From TrEMBL:
Keyword terms of this UniProt record: Signal
Signal peptide as annotated in the record: 1-22
Residues of the DUF281 domain: 72-124, 175-226, 278-331, 380-433
Protein name: DUF281 domain-containing protein
Pfam families hit by this protein: DUF281 (PF03436)
The organism of origin for this protein: Caenorhabditis brenneri (Nematode worm)
Amino acid sequence: MVLLLIRLILVLLFQRITVVEGCVRTIPPEEYYPSSTLPMETDLCKTCKIDEIEPENMPTGTVFESTPITGDCITTTAKCSRTDGKVCTSVTISSVTSTGSTVLGTTPNGNGVSVRLDCEDDGLFSSGATTRIIQLACEFTGCELPCTTCDIAPMAPTGLPAGESFEYSQTLGPDGCVTAPVSCKRTDGLICQKISLLGPGGVEITSGTGTTAAGTTLTCQGDGKFAAGGVTGINQLSCVFTDCSACTTCDISTIAPPTPAPTGTMFESEELAAPGACKSTKVTCSRTDGQICVGVAVQQATIPSGTTAVITSANSGTASGTLTCGPDGFYLANGQQISQLSCVYTDCKAACESCNAATLTPPALPTGTSFTYTDMAIPGCKSTEVTCKKDDMKLCDQISISVTNPSGSTQLSNVAMVNKLSVFLTCGNDGLYAFDATESISALSCNFVGCPSCETCSIMAIAPLDLPPELDFDVEYVCPSVQVSHYLFFQRTRGSGSLQVDQSDL
């Protein structure tokens, strides 16, 4: 009885399940709407529409494109790409399905990616193993303009010897592209005959001669590589230093005269600016007390020659000149290293005692004339008599003395009917002679005008001939005036007595 009851329950239960399943199978899908005019599409692989799944909200500067591929079923190429020229570290196209998101394709370091989509029998696109795609998405990661991607650091020279360096910096130019000022440089002050910046394959990008550095500015291009100096595709850099000298490293303080300087004297030095050249230094030994010296010298002690004068001046209180640093880093004189400098002052006097009339000697005097001077033995500032004269006794219509000073040429004095002219000059506080208000005399001239020719008469041309043995003929010259007179003497050479004949008309 119990077994029969169980069997009945099972039969009834089985029948109910069959009825429910049959009811479910008779319910049409929601998408199905019977039509009495259009036949139902049975080939669903021709019904996919790409615009229904294309990405939404594309970023600025990007685009989604599709290109149909001819075939029985709908097939298309879907592409995500940039239109602004930027390059991305990654461009990805993904699908959205009922089970989640799947990457269909990706491109590293590019500006676009594309995949193939095939319409399936269910009326939905697929790509590879990914089916039932209901939405596409484009993703752009790390996108920049190519000219902003250059990096100088990986190509910078490394392991340079001591004293050599490669310096650089990076910045964005007005156009948004990377620019990189670069230079090959000496850090030890050496000057090189040539410094070169080289690119790939040793091609020269830029160079400098007689310098401590050479550089240029690299500009990042659209291919993501630097360019400069007509060289493109720069991905490697190197520095070459040729024939470098230490001629900028000299230190004048190491050879300057000992301090303090003697009273009334001073040593000075001045670095002369000359970018890219060996160091030059102006050195000066000078009197600070106004004294004038017969000689001032900057002396040098050289190795191994000893002490010699490298700079001298005469009748001055100062000696000045320029020293040049040598390639070994020491100042040189005549190719030899200077180990010490000294100032030497010879025969120095107060300025107004130091004038030297010899410096005023006219350079070209007329024949038969001379210039003489005599220093007066009086205390205080020097006084000197200077004389312009005729040595052949000619009397001149005029003799004058003119001098030159900063104001020009000035006549000091003139006289007529004489054969010489003298003036007294006084030494001034500037070490130059003065005459009354005419100061700082630097040159002097003697001027002779109208010296008569009557003095050229020769009495001997008319001397008597064949005198008796007891007579002698002699001449005495006198100059009472411009005209020369001759007194003739006839003198007995035997016995006594003489005869004088006045020939004033000769």
